[in-house]
Amino acid sequence: MTLEARARAALGRGDFSLAADTAKSLILQDKDQPEGYFLLGIATAETGQIGKAVPLVQAAAVRGPKAEYLAQLARLLILLRRDGEAADAAREAMALAPGDARTFDTIGCVLTRLGDHEGAIKPFQCAVAAEPDNLDYRYNLAAASSYTGRVAEAGAQYEAILAADPGNARAHYAVAILSRQTADANHVTRLKTALAEAREPGEALRIRYALAKELEDIGDPEAFGHLSAANSAHKLSLRYDFAQDAAIFDAIETVFAQRNSALHQGGGNPDDAPIFVIGMPRTGTTLVDRILSSHRDVVSAGELQAMPIAVKKLAGTPSRTVIDRETIMASAAIDPAAIGDAYLAQAHHHRPRGTARFTDKLPANFLYAGHIARALPNARIVCLRRNPMDTVWSNYKNLFASRSAYYAYSYDLMDTARYYARFSRLMGMWERLFPGRVLQLSYEQLVADQEVQTRRLIEHCGLGWDAACLAFHENAAAVATPSAAQVRRPLNADGVGKWRIHEEALAPIRDWFTEQGIALD
Questions:
Q1: The CATH homologous superfamily of the domain defined by 243-515
Q2: DSSP structure string for 373-422
Q3: Does the keyword Metal-binding apply (predicted)?
Q4: What's the predicted TM-score (pTM) here?
Q5: Cα–chain-centroid distance for residue 66?
Q6: How far apart are alpha carbons 324 and 233 in whole angstroms?
């Protein structure tokens, strides 16, 4: 067996120390050959040393550009948030005509992380064509197809996965949210069978969410019981306590009460290109993003982490979490222009070319609205507001990224209500500190009077009128959120008052909001 084969075999069985030692021997054998550097880089990355791995893989690519080297380099660069370099490496890898399914899939995954869902279709298709029995590759193609509106293709891929693996929880959940189910056409029986046979808590979580979604679609109140069981178990696994989020809200309020801090000095970056669409999740942020990106002068950049990353990097805090109390407190010492510059540099790699303005629709940017107002004084901010009860219910019933700290509150009804109350209080503070900077847009009013509210939205964003904004459902751009199916239909009131289906179970939340003085109408 050659040294290269030994190193690859060691990587395959997880013996990274042996793989590294063998790769070093390969380098000593011939320092001009790329393979040793590449394998040493991959072994180094597998031990968590991404920063040390990148120069090694780059050294391989310099000595002999191969699609495999460049695809793996792109993957590592994404992990380091070096998005622009990752995009270049991924596209160069694709141009070199990869010869294996894994490299195609890696390119597709990188492009997906960059928000280029359309670009990811071809490499995912090639991966599936090369290895049709690999269900992970099929899932990635199905997801990209769903994001880009290829619903029939997505459905066919998910069903192929389930034919091969009837208990595949990811595919079950994806099928459930792909379209609205009906009493005559649903997967309830299949899902109940899969739930009974689920082997792992994570599988049961996704299948229960899928089952609850389909049951709610057909008007079956049994949906609530499945959600309650799934969420209770998942909250325990996360060890979440609302105090974690309360500390973040407290820190934001403290920082912006310090009027003499560096964050309150300086003029920020004057670029007016960004339009931030913020709010609690599942309140219409994707809808408004689609409306705005239907405008001739606006394109959607998706849900960017650019602002959280800019603040985190400049704050210099050592924690591994992007947002925490320490990071927010440290942000008080940052020059706002530096935040604006860092944000625009990060966003640049995700921003499609060809239009003057772009939307960033990360809902959680409501936590950073003050930073945005100071760092980008000419950027526009739109905050979606939805009935508190519908907001709580919609957050509770949707499975977000299951390990994301942003959404840890959503697995408990009372935690979600408390989170909504702090969100609402924070939005009130932003209005007092930056009057008129944030357009508070009511989801219910938008549904009830589409043109009037759309014109109000367009005017706030400093745009000329474009009638295409009223036909947002015809927008062919990709959508990578749970709202993908809804925003491809004309505006409707189906989501208004949905909480009342479970009014009895949600009564404690309604009563708590009333006690807190939070209006429910």
A1: P-loop containing nucleotide triphosphate hydrolases (3.40.50.300)
A2: HHH-TT-EEEEEE--HHHHHHHHHHS---TT-GGGGGGGSHHHHHHHHHH
A3: no
A4: 0.87
A5: 30
A6: 25
Token couple for 269: 């970056």
Q: How far apart are CA 302 and CA 356, in angstroms?
A: 16
Count CB atoms within 10 A of the CB of residue 350: 22
3-state secondary structure of 241: coil
Q: From CA 488, how far away is CA 471, in angstroms rounded?
A: 10
Greatest Cα pair distance in the chain: 75
Q: Are 347 and 339 in contact (CB under 8 A)?
A: no
Q: Are 308 and 360 in contact (CB under 8 A)?
A: no
> Which single residue is written with the structure tokens 């004084």?
377
DSSP secondary structure, 275-324, as one string: EEEEESTTSSHHHHHHHHHTSTTEEE--S--HHHHHHHHHHT---SSSS-
pLDDT truncated to tens, each residue of the chain (521 aa)?
Answer: 799 899 999 999 999 999 999 999 999 999 999 999 999 999 999 999 999 999 999 999 999 999 999 999 999 999 998 988 999 999 999 999 999 999 999 999 999 999 899 999 999 999 999 999 999 999 999 999 999 989 999 999 999 999 999 999 999 999 999 999 999 999 999 999 999 999 888 899 999 999 999 999 998 889 999 999 989 988 988 899 999 999 999 999 999 998 878 788 778 999 999 999 999 999 999 999 999 999 999 999 999 999 999 999 999 999 989 999 999 999 999 999 999 999 999 998 888 777 789 999 999 999 999 999 999 999 999 999 999 999 999 999 988 876 677 899 999 999 999 999 999 999 999 999 999 999 999 999 999 999 999 999 999 999 999 999 999 888 766 666 665 666 667 788 888 888 998 999 999 999 999 999 999 87
Long-range pairs for 61-67: beta carbons < 8 A, 24 or more residues apart = 61/34, 61/89, 62/34, 63/32, 63/33, 63/34, 63/37, 64/33, 64/34, 65/92, 65/96, 66/34, 66/96, 67/93, 67/94, 67/96, 67/97, 67/98, 67/99, 67/103, 67/107
Q: Where are the domains of the chain?
A: 166-239, 243-515
- Residue 279 forms beta bridges with which residues? 384
Contacts of 23 by beta carbon, 8 Å cutoff, 6+ apart: 3, 7, 36, 37, 39, 40, 43
CA distances from 439 to 275, 361, 381, 430, 491 (A): 11, 14, 6, 11, 20
Tokens 């996704």: give the residue. 206
